[in-house]
Amino acid sequence: MLYIIGLGLSDAKDITAKGLDAVKKCEHIFLEVYTSKLNCGVHDLEKLYKKKIELADRSFVEDAAEILKKSKKEDVALLVIGDPLSATTHWDLMQRAKEKKIPVEVIHNASIMSAIAATGLQLYKFGKTASIPFPLDDYQPETSYNIIKINQSIGAHTLCLLDTQPEFMTVKEAIQILLDIEGNRKEGVFTRETLCIGCARIGAKDQIIKAGKAKDLMDFDFGAPVQCLVVPGELHFVEEEALGL
User: Fold this and answer.
1) SS3 for 3?
2) Domain residues of the chain, as ranges?
3) For 161-172, how does the pLDDT look when each residue is reduced to its tens digit (9 = 90+)?
4) Is pLDDT above 90 for 89?
5) C-alpha torsion 188→191→196→200, nearest 10
6) Tens digit of pLDDT for each residue in 124-165?
7) 20, 43, 155, 207 from 16: Cα distances, Å
8) 198 with 116: CB under 8 angstroms?
9) Are 96 and 72 in contact (CB under 8 A)?
10) Which residue among 36, 106, 152, 178 is least crowded, i.e. fewest CB within 10 A of its CB?
11) Of 7, 27, 25, nearest in space to 83 by CA
12) Minimal CA–CA distance to 179: which of 199, 165, 164, 196?
């Protein structure tokens, strides 16, 4: 049996009761560590769950050979920060398990896709989500800029997820990347005057949510990861009040 279990956004205690019950009956437990980061260490999980946890990097999960082999004969859990099916890798793992006739149970939890409502923005007004990657050598992908442009055309908000490799990207770095793309494109999609919302550690006790012009957020210290950036579309007056505008 393979369990794919969401851990939520903050710490060891965010797991659901259903997820914890599943963990306690598994012989092997893997923690996926490449898509996000908890505000605690793996030892905190082991202490609360009373189980040994093995770290699983991207290649281990994408290859999946060991996970699937063990799941054939024993109960195995893959712990995923946030919600289990937010990343396509986990969906692929589930499909491969089913092809091998391995029973799979997905246990959902909170993810940034829903928790971003903590900003005060209405979820149904968000458009397509963008990912902002670090530049690759001399190449800077512009997909995030294009998504913001499309969402702006319909008045929709844009949630920008920030790269986690080789390190966790900051709000400041994300803004600079978008400004660099704007400098090349000159389409007025994202400028130093653009209203943004910088977020850090959503779901944690020390979460930070700060709205302001892009140029101002670049001077603000959001602290530790995980961080994300929101580029609002058309704001309802209730949303403006929530943002303190």
Assistant:
1) strand
2) 2-110, 113-243
3) 999 999 999 999
4) no
5) 130
6) 999 999 999 999 888 999 999 999 999 999 999 999 999 999
7) 6, 18, 35, 21
8) no
9) no
10) 106
11) 7
12) 196
> Using only C-alpha atoms, what is the Rg of the chain?
19
Tell me the pLDDT tens digit for each residue of 30-62.
Answer: 999 998 999 999 999 999 999 999 999 999 999
Distance CA 143, CA 140 (A): 9
Inform me whether the pLDDT recorded for 78 exceeds 80.
yes
Dig out the tokens for 144 from the structure: 């995030």
Burial 112-150 (b: 16+ CB within 10 A, else e): beebbeebbbeeebbbebbebbbeeeeebebebbbbbbe
Write out pLDDT tens, residues 194-232: 999 999 999 999 999 999 999 999 999 999 999 999 999
CATH number for the segment(s) 113-243: 3.30.950.10
Note the pLDDT of residue 138: 83
In sequence order, the 6+-apart residues with CB closer than 8 A to the CB of 227 are 162, 168, 169, 170, 171, 174, 198, 199, 200, 201
Residue 231: closest CA among 177, 170, 190, 203? 190
Q: How far is the CA of 73 from the CAs of 1, 2, 76, 96, 227, in angstroms?
A: 8, 10, 9, 16, 39
2-110: CATH class: alpha beta
The angle at the Cα of 72, spanning 67 to 74, to the nearest 5 degrees, equals 85
Q: Work out whether strand 130-132 and strand 158-162 pair parallel, antiparallel, or are unpaired.
A: parallel
